[in-house]
Specification:
Two copies of one chain form a homodimer. The first copy, chain A, is mainly alpha-helical. Chain A has helices spanning 3-26, 33-40, 44-50, 56-73, 82-98, 105-114, 116-140, 146-169, 174-190, 196-199. The longest helix of chain A is centred in the middle third of the chain and has 25 residues, at 116-140. The termini of chain A are far apart. Chains A and B meet through helix 5, helix 7, helix 8, helix 9 and helix 10 of A and helix 5, helix 7, helix 8, helix 9 and helix 10 of B. Chain A binds a DNA duplex through helix 1 and helix 3.
Chain lengths: 204, 204
DNA sequence: GGAAAAATTTGCAACGCCTGCAACTTCGCA
DNA sequence: TGCGAAGTTGCAGGCGTTGCAAATTTTTCC
């Protein structure tokens, strides 16, 4: 790797760290691109040659992690059922998303939970990985109905998103988060009909 | 209703229609707030006293419709199981979301499918109605576990969102969309394990 | 080692969204 | 008819974002 590439990586990192630090210190809206650029020792214009927008810098880390996970997912033992494979894939992704990365993980989570616009962006990303799940799914079972694949991915990702967000927002410990995820997977796999409270009549 | 209120309603409508017409004619990004204001015969500044942002004008109609649905939902016969009630609620909401409203319905859908930022906003709204589903659910079954409620809402809304988006993007007819929704509900209710293709081993 | 070529950074100007503010107009009510 | 409330408007300005061309740095090749 040449000097050029090394420097670019370094600059990218400097910008991201400066941005997250400032966001933590004085808030997201209160930090301008100019502030970030100054803190990272680059020109404001350069910021945009590394990140397409101010919002993207918040998701840079998690995106890298997700990309790694996707690469690792390509090779899976072929002797498990598609359902088992999907469970694995989902768990690995959750691991990547839910783990606190570096020292700024908590800040990123807090920012996303607080700012509606960041939340929207996060949901968009979630939606994009849902597309990925559809592709992986149709690859695992080529005979599957298109609608089925779409629905399964939607319900799976939707359910997982819901638990994780809930656990995050309510300060669950990693352990309780994990057991909540297990519970969520079970519900999605066995159906809403398997939840007793749902099929009991309200009369009492 | 006094003159004042009537005029406001009228102005709001004028702005929304002008905006959607211009979006359709020359594109979303190609239309500025100034253009919309001029077409609606108000000052640019006034636009923002009716809609908080340019994006919101795209969702104004659907938001109104959803609000109506929510009001109608409050009163449900108490002799059905929560699961049945949820199905009704979901179907009514889908009806509201999926139907083409007025002459601009198709344009709104197209805009949202095309523009990533609008897609993100749409997902955020979806997420908000998911919160509503959680509330309604815990109301229907007060004894339900918190996590269960969150997961169920997430899977339900996630699955529905996935089918509808897919049908929309692929130009399904209303009939085939409806049957796809039924299929989706069945999958979510009975669980992914009920889909044969998923539990068959890949070996053949 | 040095010059040409390629990639990167930078400053500049501009556009468009959005907001706060203060003046102005319109409406409702007594 | 006049007063207060509500709504509209213009203005000034901040901020994110982009295109462009000049300046700088890195690579490549002689």
């Amino acid at each position: 790797m040449g000097l050029r590439e090394r420097k670019k990586r370094q600059t990218r990192r400097a910008i991201a760290e400066a941005a997250l630090r400032l966001f933590a210190e004085r808030g997201y809206e209160e930090t301008t691109i100019a502030d970030i650029a100054q803190a990272a020792d680059v020109s404001p214009r350069t910021f945009f040659s590394y990140f397409p927008s101010k919002e993207d810098v918040v998701f840079a880390e998690i995106d890298e992690r997700l990309a790694e996970v996707r690469e690792g997912i390509e090779r899976r033992p072929a002797d498990e059922t598609p359902l088992e494979s999907m469970r694995r894939i989902v768990l690995e992704m959750i691991e990547a998303i839910a783990a606190e990365h570096g020292e700024y993980g908590a800040i990123q989570v807090q920012l996303v939970l607080e700012r509606p616009s960041l939340q929207a962006r996060a949901l968009k990303r979630m939606n994009d990985t849902e597309q990925y799940v559809v592709e992986r799914l149709t690859e695992l079972c080529p005979a599957i109905d298109e609608i089925d694949a779409v629905v399964i991915a939607g319900a799976l990702v939707g359910g997982m998103k819901a638990v994780i967000t809930h656990c995050r927002a309510h300060g669950y410990t990693p352990q309780s988060t994990r057991s909540a995820v297990d519970r969520a997977l079970a519900i999605v796999e066995h159906g809403l009909g398997s939840v007793p409270a749902l099929t009991r009549r309200a009369a009492e």
